[in-house]
Amino acid sequence: xxxxxxxxxxxxxxxxxxxxRGAQGVGAGEGRFVVQEHDATxxxxxxxxxxxxxxxxxxxxxxxxxxxxxxxxxxxxxDHPLEYLAFEGEIPQGSYGAGTVTIWDSGTYTAEKxxxxxxxxxxxxxxxxxxxxxxxxxxxxxxxxRMDPPADPNEEPMPDQVExxxxxxxxxxxxxxxxxxxxxxxxxxxxxxCDGGHVKLQTRxxxxxxxxxxELRALGRALGSTRAILDGEVVxxxxxxxxxxxxxxxxxxxxxxxxxxxRAEETPATYMVFDLLYLNGHxxxxxxxxxxxxxxxxxxxEGPSWRTxxxxxxxxxxxxxASRQQDLEGVVAKRLDSTYEPGARTGAWLKxxxxxxxxxxxxxWLPGQGRRxxxxxxxxxxxxxxxxxxxxxxxxxxxxxxxxxxxxxRMLDSLATDESPFEGRQPPEQTVFVRPQLVVxxxxxxxxxxxxxxxxxxxxxxxxxxxxxxxxxxxEEVVEHER
Length: 483
Hints:
This protein is mostly beta strands and about 475 residues long. Helix content is about 10%, strand content about 35%. It has an eight-stranded antiparallel beta barrel with strand order 1-2-3-4-9-8-7-6. The protein is elongated, with a radius of gyration of 28 Å. The chain starts with 5 loop residues before the first helix and ends in a 22-residue tail after the last strand.
């Protein structure tokens, strides 16, 4: 056994780590296993099988696969002493494998095959049950494959993408007892996929922005082996704890990981989670919102960079009044009996705003005057009718920071074109036209009779929306019997 544990002992200083040394005189054995959750530099799981007096070990970065259609990586590591089958504890910083080790499952196994490059075994734990194969692919790299059908015959694979359900701009519903009311967050809509401790973040237009928000990766650690798809809003909070879309602009359009990490320290983001779309092998989208919300709250997602904000059934006027007093964007009303319909704007969700805002497409720009003579004076904006016809809606020339003007100029220079993207009414003659690929959000006082924005102010770029999805939003009166 001494030779088998040589690598294990060489990597550890047992005056610092509480890990077992490996007792002398332990005889050959087989039949027990343990799966340990190891929250180290990267969260992973360790599978250890009792064999010939040691615990033969693999690190599983994404845990145990539950479905035969999905194989997971397994990294073969040094043999561990048999005492490790019962080990839990804190490996101190500076030690090899520093982090927290907890037992995820344990039990017995029966091996059909146990070769140097392949193991086939049937496990009889509480969470790990069934027939699995471990097979070597290259060097220390192995794969683990479930050979049985899934333990849950109704298990559904986690989808790769989900288009968020959308809300209609509306007045407060007449019968607010049918709804729950939540704060409308002034941020970026993001779907979060959590699988095996790993996180993927996807915007409303299905763009991967995981690298832009490195602080949210820790949400995967918090969920551990729980597999879930979350819906929420990424926000940046100002000194008063209120969401600021202007602050969030600093976190968008970041190319390098080092810049993303630096900006995460300067302007931290918070993920406001308000819906649960998938949980441990099952879509929850067909459940009523009230049930999805209950499941979400059971996950207890409260952390340094994520929260589950409160939701209040009924009394929508009081909620709207409170949001106005706190100078928040407004509230969202969601029917308690509504299912989740990806990409749809059915009226089951309503957004009631305190300020008039509109997402618009940039179709050109006017050069500035005076101190802004070398950059942008205003943006020519429009919205789509029938996803084909870009209608001119006026210009916005206020609300820009110097940094944003430089960003916009750089982006718009690359989109320059000789032809106007607008149909019908046109912007001023001096307009420099661009291909309509950028979406911005503006705040304004009202629409003129000619269909032009009055007193618009720039709020920020919307990287989470496709231009063709930008339409004129009108406030609707909700008639309850229509549903």
